[in-house]
Known about the structure:
nucleus, TF_fung, transcription, DNA-binding transcription factor activity, RNA polymerase II-specific
Amino acid sequence: MRANRSSEEMEFLRRIFWSCYISNLYVYLNSGFLSVPSQKDIAVKFPKNDFYWKYGGVYNDCPIQILDLNSIANSYNSKEPLYRDGFGFLCKIYLHFGAATKYLGSRWIKKNLGSKHSDTNFSSILNSLKKLQAQYTKEYKNYVYAPDSLNPFDDTVSECSKFHKIYFSFHQIMILNCSFIYLYQSELVRIKNYSVNPLRIKIAKKMCLKYAISQSNMFTIRFKNVPPVLWEPLSVTLAIPATVIIMSNLYSDPLNPTANKKLKTSYNALLSVFTTLSVYNESPKILFFAMTAYSKKLSNTYKLNLKDNNFKKVMKQFSIHDKDYHPWLVPKHLSYFKYTCCGKDGLSDIDYRSYANALDNPAENSLPNSMFAYIHTSNTNNPVFTHSQIINYQRNVIRPLNPPGIIKRKLFQLDHEKDSKFGNLLEKIAKPPQTSKN
């Protein structure tokens, strides 16, 4: 089959391979698992479809967030544009997700508490995600709800093209949904002696729930169009944030079997992801057990909270519906599984008193209520802050953790790709292919 394909067809198939590879690597990043060998360990010679292992070869001028992508891009003839397909958009999502996790993973560590730059970074990341979401809606949204039929065992280029659309239309929105959930749920983290704003809590809850339900819908649609046996087993991690968010809502009224019917439907759809993929691999089964443990934790804490007469009175001001009293379960440092191996709890406190006590000392550095509401309700993509403010805060606050022996690198500016060396690569990704001269 390979001998019968043109170089352009081989390049297209190769791009699908690497697109899947990067998307698969993402699930390791957000779950806290050890990653499979990264792109730094594998190289590819463009435009041919040949791969080989390599060791070392770090590019010192490359921002740490895009080292993996850079190791691929630098193997290519930079004078020619890359093929225009879902790979380019996934590169952008991967890059922005990486920058967001750098911020969210350290937002609530002691040295960063009360930082006046935290809200600025939050709004900047949010604006970047909104732009990606708008691009997704324009290019992929309609296809999600009407995908072509797919024969998974057909190796022809036309069938690979169908797979390409199905794969990207689902995975891109799933990764975006996770990014939004991770960002907003960081607002729900409770830290001792740090204040809480009811308006911010309610806005964050509404947005988390919105994207959690969307994630459940995407999994339901994907089940109907792609046989689970073809899924990567650890794509189940894309269901974790939405599952925990909806789980927290179900415990708002656990004794009423008719309450939250829509949420229960979404929750059951997400659980089916874990149980179905567990048939083919052990990893989803382990994560399903983790979801069960979280459910028990919520149930036990909810019973303790109910024993306090002030519980509902305090939590009512943070609720987004009549039965929303219980604090939601969220991770402190992005990953739900961080520190569990060391006997430390990586989850935020769900004792309602962590909210009650925080109300006594309003945060001096909190973003004003009106501005925070504007960020999350505005229909425009214009950033709230000026260009110079965003650039300055991104340069000084979203700092990656540099491995030993590697010189600190200039950060990639989230909203201004053209100001970065990597911007040239993104521009090439966005251009259509050109016919090479013989």
